[in-house]
């Protein structure tokens, strides 16, 4: 049994799109949603990011202020990438090579929750390897119509148990699943 919980959080549309939420998510941003996302970061002591999410976050968050920025900038960040040669965001470390083996080793060490933000390919790989303990989805009442989906056509079945659900006033569903 893992010593730490590995939990992923994603914004998703009704049609399953998780790609480029910055192009469709912001009309639904509310105090309640900020609290839900902030709660994910508050329970974490490590943030695990794929390359693309790292690059997007590192371009924005170091230049922000406020409670959320302090949480994200102050947390340990592990970046899963086979193409980056270095990272320069304060508190960030690069995981190269066998990312799944590194995450498995991380999960077996004592510590707090490891939160995966965005990082579609990384979340898919963790789910497929049985390394993801929780999947938190903020399902937006919107059909995006195009873009990468969390579960692509032909993906293997992944049984999940719903362990928490809430409806935010803006119609966003806050759902937390545990690996079955």
Automatic annotation (TrEMBL):
Annotated ranges, domain Bacterial bifunctional deaminase-reductase C-terminal: 5-172
Database matches in Pfam families: RibD_C (PF01872)
Transmembrane regions: none
Highest taxon of the lineage: Bacteria
Name of protein: Dihydrofolate reductase family protein
SUPFAM superfamilies per record: Dihydrofolate reductase-like
């Amino acid at each position: 049994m893992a010593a730490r919980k590995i939990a992923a959080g994603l914004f998703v549309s009704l049609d399953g799109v998780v790609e480029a939420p910055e192009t469709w998510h912001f009309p639904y941003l509310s105090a309640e949603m900020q609290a839900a996302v902030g709660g994910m970061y508050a329970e974490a002591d490590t943030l695990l990011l794929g390359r693309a999410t790292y690059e997007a976050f590192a371009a924005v968050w170091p230049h922000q202020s406020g409670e959320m920025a302090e949480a994200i900038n102050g947390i340990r960040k592990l970046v899963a990438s086979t193409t980056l040669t270095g990272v320069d965001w304060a508190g960030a470390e690069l995981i190269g090579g066998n990312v799944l083996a590194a995450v498995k080793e991380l999960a077996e060490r004592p510590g707090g929750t490891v939160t995966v933000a965005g990082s579609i390919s990384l979340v898919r790989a963790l789910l497929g390897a049985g390394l993801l303990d929780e999947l938190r989805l903020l399902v937006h009442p919107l059909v995006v119509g195009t873009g990468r989906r969390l579960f692509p056509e032909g993906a293997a079945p992944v049984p999940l148990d719903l362990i928490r659900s809430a409806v935010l006033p803006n119609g966003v569903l806050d759902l937390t699943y545990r690996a079955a």
